[in-house]
Write a structure and sequence with these properties.
By secondary structure, this protein is an alpha+beta fold. It is built from 24 helices and 26 strands. Helices cover about 35% and strands about 25% of the residues. It has a 6-stranded antiparallel beta sheet with strand order 3-2-1-6-5-4. The protein has a 5-stranded antiparallel beta sheet with strand order 8-7-11-10-9.
Length: about 725
């Protein structure tokens, strides 16, 4: 079977586990692809056999730390390699702008000019993984046919080799980067002793960095400017060897140069008061850095970054940025749970997740993933916070807890039953200075949590906490909005003599998911009435006003007012309420015994009438202005024939108005659908009209539909 070994992700595996025996299949294929299309970096991912996760098996052309958030990628993640596998297609991102538009999370972590192509590695029947390659920002915005053909053919060949390896039961796993040929000394870098002497005589500093940022050459001037002997600099990262360069901003400039393959620069303050200029010249094998004393120090001082405490490891920055970008998309609590599972679990290598919260002094399980038996987690639901468990302890104390093994857990919590996992991280979720929950990351195998990983996980816990707090507030508002909306709309439609009715209401997906659309049936004798309307706005004010209008219409109908008078009275009511909101409305007095309906309209979309023979027409009704504008407005009526078997379709503009579709085209499409499906039961027909409406799918506005079908006279 072709796959990647179980256990921690590639970043956590010991070096011995990463050693491959035999020919490095993946590295050779990747290096060949990069060379053939003149790309400068790339990676191969393998699909795990036991879970829907892509794991990076080899990366070439740039440090693996650059891709830290995407070492392990869930197949549902919005990243190019996952899209390539899901859709079995080549994914092309032509530059910085397209990356920001299509993959904002990646753009937030890597905001540099580069182009990227991702392709699936698959045969006709099996997907083995994916490949991506990148080019500098100077690459044309479109992938050439030659590049496309080369990459597609190379991935197909790689898939066949992986298929053969699987048939031979050869295990393919992580491999080393063949393109990263470390430079061993000055002669390798400069080519001759004389060249070395020449460089040593230059008045400015010269430093050579390999792809991983390690210093492989430094001249005497550079060592003097950096204030460190060359022996302490060689083989080390500049921001590790030189304390005042230990700032993520400087590391970011190095990263920008490598990814974009463009010259970058920065200035840094060498304590106590000397400013140095660093200019980086990238290539596919590393960077050459020119260091000199900066001129115009006063001007530089205004713009130069300041040193100070902050994350010094690149993986910290990228992990936090990636999750922060993802969590901005979370709306409700379940969105947070799913995003943490999709984003955090693949990157840290855990196989289980639980999000806990405190409600009324008890522990509540908000969501979990990765547990084969849900009872293992759900037995903690409702547990008093006074109970001593690792979850309650983290929530009560605000202190994270890490358990490397079951033995360590059992020593502190002997009563805790096994849950099928071998190590755990309990991260307190603290937002606005108070604990809002606990995030539990569970690992299938014993897992050591070094200090830097604990720091990363704790930082991620803070981001998760903020998202969870927002999500809980949103869910509370959503429940309030739903309850208010349900109380203002009729729970059931009143039975009308000679009339069958069906209705649908869908809230807008923007705002509070509450709005002013309404409908109602009023079963007065001997005639009946129907009304549909739309108060502008998507908030509590619009919903409350809608409730008052609906009540007014029922009252005026009950006392026997004619349709035009009902509309005029409702108009005056709206103006008297002083709400500064307008409403559209369509009112019908129904007389199925006589086969007719009398309608009054106030700025509302025209209804559709489907005759018994299947013909549909848009009713061009007389009408007046929107309700709430002019107290003296009149609303003339129109009489419409309503033969048995006829269907009236009343709706609000949310069903037909879409930013990208002309209203006339929407009405034509709605009429065609009504003609085709109008013989169905009304409940099915209502579902069809909503399901096939482009505007209803986008839900920029509320949608209300009221269908009326006249019965045969009996």
């Amino acid at each position: 079977m072709v796959g990647v070994s179980d256990g921690p992700g590639p970043a956590q595996r010991p070096a011995a586990d990463r050693t491959q025996v035999g020919r490095p299949l993946l590295s050779i294929a990747l290096a060949s692809m990069i060379e053939d299309v003149h790309a400068h970096s790339g990676a191969v991912y393998l699909l795990r056999p036991d879970e829907p996760v892509l794991e990076m098996a080899v990366m070439a052309g740039m440090p693996r730390a650059f891709a830290a958030p995407w070492e392990r990628v869930g197949l549902s993640a919005p990243v190019p390699v996952a899209d390539a596998v899901r859709d079995r297609r080549l994914v092309w991102v032509g530059g910085e702008e397209q990356m920001a538009r299509c993959y904002p999370r990646i753009s937030m972590v890597l905001p540099y000019p580069f182009a990227l192509a991702a392709l699936p590695v698959a045969t006709a029947g099996t997907v083995y993984g994916a490949v991506f390659v990148t080019w500098p920002g100077a690459h044309p915005p479109e992938l050439s046919d030659r590049e496309r053909d080369i990459l597609t053919a190379a991935c197909e060949r790689l898939a066949l080799r992986l298929e053969r390896a699987a048939a031979e039961n050869r295990r393919i796993g992580p491999e080393v980067d063949l393109l990263a040929t470390p430079l061993s000394g000055v002669s390798d870098t400069l080519g001759s002793v004389e060249a070395t002497r020449m460089v040593s005589r230059l008045p400015y500093g010269l430093v050579s960095l390999d792809l991983h940022g390690r210093i492989v050459f430094v001249n005497a001037a550079a060592a003097d400017l950096l204030g460190r002997p060359s022996g302490e600099l060689l083989g080390n990262l500049p921001w590790v060897s030189v304390p005042w360069l230990n700032d993520p901003v400087y590391e970011d400039r190095y990263r920008a140069a490598l990814i974009s393959q463009q010259v970058t620069s920065f200035v840094a303050l060498r304590p106590p008061g000397e400013w140095l200029s660093f200019r980086m010249y990238p290539s596919t094998t590393g960077l050459s850095v020119r260091i000199s004393r900066a001129r115009a120090v006063a001007e530089m001082a205004r713009d130069a970054p300041r040193t100070g405490a902050g994350p010094s490891r690149l993986v910290t920055i990228t992990q936090v940025l990636s999750l922060a970008a993802a969590l901005t998309e979370a709306v409700g609590v379940q969105d947070v749970v799913q995003l943490v599972w999709d984003e955090v679990a693949p990157s840290v290598g855990c196989q289980g997740l639980v999000i806990l919260a405190s409600q009324a002094g008890r522990l509540h399980v908000l969501g979990h993933r990765g547990y084969a038996d849900p009872y293992v987690v759900e037995r903690f639901h409702g547990l008093p916070l006074s109970e001593r468990t690792p979850g309650t302890q983290a929530l009560n104390t605000g202190v994270p807890a890490f358990f490397d093994s079951w033995e360590q857990m059992a020593r502190l919590y002997p009563k805790r039953p096994p849950d099928g996992f071998a190590s755990w991280a309990y991260l307190p979720l603290i937002a606005s200075g108070r604990p809002v929950g606990t995030c539990v990351l569970a690992y299938a195998d014993p897992h050591v949590f070094p200090a830097d990983e604990r720091a990363v996980l704790t930082s991620l816990g803070g981001l998760i906490a903020q998202a969870l707090e927002r999500a809980q507030l949103y869910d509370a508002k959503h429940r309030l909005a739903q309850g208010l909306q349900e109380s203002l709309l009729p729970h059931t439609l009143a039975a009308l003599p000679g009339i069958e009715a069906a209705a649908r209401y869908l809230p807008a997906t923007q705002g509070m998911e509450i709005g002013g659309d309404f409908y109602d049936l009023v079963p007065t004798r001997p005639l009946a009435a129907a009304v549909i309307g739309d108060v502008q706005g998507h908030n509590v004010t619009a919903a409350a006003l809608m409730g008052q209008i609906r009540t007014g219409v029922r009252a005026y109908t009950t006392v026997g007012q004619a349709p035009q008078d009902v509309m005029s009275s409702t108009n005056r009511l709206l103006i008297d309420l002083g709400a500064d909101l307008f409403a559209s409305c369509l009112y019908l007095r129904l007389d199925p015994a006589q086969g007719q309906a009398v309608m009054a309209r106030a700025g509302h979309p025209p209804p559709l009438l489907r005759r018994p023979d299947g013909q549909v027409r848009v009713l061009d009704l007389a009408g007046g202005p929107l309700l709430g504008i002019d107290a003296s407005a009149t609303y003339p009526t129109t009489e419409v024939s309503l033969a048995p078997g006829s269907v009236l379709a009343l709706y609000t503009d949310g069903l037909v108005e879409s930013p990208d579709v002309d209203i006339e085209d929407s009405l034509v499409d709605l009429g065609a659908l009504l003609a085709e499906a109008g013989d169905q039961p009304l409940e099915n027909l209502a579902d069809e009209l909503v399901r096939h409406s482009a505007a209803a799918r986008e839900r920029v506005d509320d949608v209300a539909v009221l269908l009326l079908r006249a019965h045969e006279n009996r």
